[in-house]
């Protein structure tokens, strides 16, 4: 769960606002995320079996154009958006794959895969965020700085989901308004880097860019970008969202269960405050039950939960972008909400160009500072 000094501003209009975005590259800015991990580290990488695109069916015809990792000439009309118009712009933070043909094969496979989310879900989240923009709801977004392959299991997904639900109950009770719960999960793999290379003991290797690109072990083999990792990232994202949907609608998120959970990491005064609040919520639930709103009512047993991640790996995001048949708009179907990061928010850059044409709820990552420290 990343409780960071940075925040994501959810809006479409802000992404084109020159007053909020810097046109200069911020690649030299240190990564000042403060976070803690809920995930165990005792899982062996040897148990991870590779998933290869060669096992997929032949790609079906798609409205998506062919993708590649580096900008290539296109026939796009200047100023007009298309699904690949980002290729005419400078793209930062993209990996350099040694074998472009392997990447092409993977991207074509991804284009033929079903979307992870669908347009109607993204539109529903947009409606919820409109309530938050008007002050009638609160947006809660949290998750890990980056998901990994070796720590992927149901318990980790459950624990992150559970903490977001607990935080949501506290905020909803204290603020007396709905809480929109958005997980930074089911797709948050790629990591932006300040430097393309890392050096240890005189050995210089490419930087680790997230499990969907290369491995974190400091070896030459692990640090080579591997397009097959994109297939595994897709599969893990789809499986994660499937479990999240089951948790959200299958009874696990029932209000009376949430108030009975313990925040295991809460100790001392903070733990006492949470338990006191939990008891007050239980009292409120008892009153509601007595008034006729029983615990088996759908509003008490289910919750809405959304996913988000940084739109960093543009070839992958393009491969999962679909044209909505009902609206004619393009949606990045890798997540309900995507955002542009601190190092890729250049107004004339490829990431802003790609995001200006998708209809998902969008975000901009901005840094906040404690002025008391100056």
Automatic annotation (TrEMBL):
Binds 1 divalent cation per subunit. The enzyme is active with manganese, cobalt or cadmium ions. Keywords: Amino-acid biosynthesis, Aromatic amino acid biosynthesis, Cadmium, Chloroplast, Cobalt, Manganese, Plastid, Transferase, Transit peptide. It catalyses: D-erythrose 4-phosphate + phosphoenolpyruvate + H2O = 7-phospho-2-dehydro-3-deoxy-D-arabino-heptonate + phosphate. It is found in: Plastid, Chloroplast. Mn(2+) binds at residue 145. The keyword Transit peptide applies. Residues 58-80 are annotated as: Disordered. InterPro entries: Aldolase_TIM, DAHP_synth_2. It comes from the Eukaryota. Phosphoenolpyruvate binds at residues 184, 342-343, 365. Pathway: Metabolic intermediate biosynthesis; chorismate biosynthesis; chorismate from D-erythrose 4-phosphate and phosphoenolpyruvate: step 1/7. This is Phospho-2-dehydro-3-deoxyheptonate aldolase. It comes from Aquilegia coerulea (Rocky mountain columbine).
């Amino acid at each position: 769960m990343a409780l960071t000094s940075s925040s994501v501003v959810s809006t479409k209009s802000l992404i084109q606002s020159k007053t909020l975005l810097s046109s200069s590259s911020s690649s030299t800015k240190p990564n000042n995320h403060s976070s803690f991990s809920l995930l165990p580290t005792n899982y062996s990488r040897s148990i991870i079996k590779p998933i290869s695109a060669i096992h997929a069916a032949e790609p079906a015809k798609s409205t998506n154009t062919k993708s590649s990792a580096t900008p290539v000439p296109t026939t796009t009309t200047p100023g007009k958006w298309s699904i690949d118009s980002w290729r005419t712009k400078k793209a930062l933070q993209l990996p350099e794959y040694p074998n472009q043909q392997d990447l092409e094969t993977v991207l074509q496979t991804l284009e033929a895969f079903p979307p992870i989310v669908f347009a109607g879900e993204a539109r529903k989240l947009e409606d919820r965020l409109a309530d938050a923009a008007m002050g009638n709801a609160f947006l809660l977004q949290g998750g890990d700085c980056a998901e990994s392959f070796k720590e992927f299991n149901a318990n980790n997904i459950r624990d992150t989901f559970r903490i977001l639900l607990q935080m949501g109950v506290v905020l909803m009770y204290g603020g007396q308004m709905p809480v929109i719960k958005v997980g930074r999960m089911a797709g948050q793999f790629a990591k932006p880097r300040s430097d393309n290379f890392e050096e240890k003991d005189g050995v210089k290797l490419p930087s680790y860019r997230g499990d969907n690109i290369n491995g974190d072990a400091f070896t030459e083999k692990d640090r080579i970008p591997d397009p097959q990792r994109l297939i595994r990232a897709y599969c893990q994202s789809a499986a994660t969202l499937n479990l999240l949907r089951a948790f959200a609608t299958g009874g696990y998120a029932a209000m009376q269960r949430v108030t009975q959970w313990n925040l295991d990491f809460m100790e001392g005064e903070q733990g006492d405050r949470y338990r006191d609040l939990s008891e007050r919520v239980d009292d409120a639930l008892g009153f509601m039950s007595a008034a006729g709103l029983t615990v088996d009512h759908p509003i008490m047993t289910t919750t809405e939960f959304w996913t988000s991640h940084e739109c960093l790996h543009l070839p992958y995001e393009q491969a999962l972008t679909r044209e909505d048949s009902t609206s004619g708009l393009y949606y990045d179907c890798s997540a309900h909400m995507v955002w542009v990061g601190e190092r890729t928010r250049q107004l004339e850059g490829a990431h802003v160009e790609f995001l200006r044409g998708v209809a998902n709820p969008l975000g901009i990552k901005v840094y906040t500072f404690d002025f008391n420290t100056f």
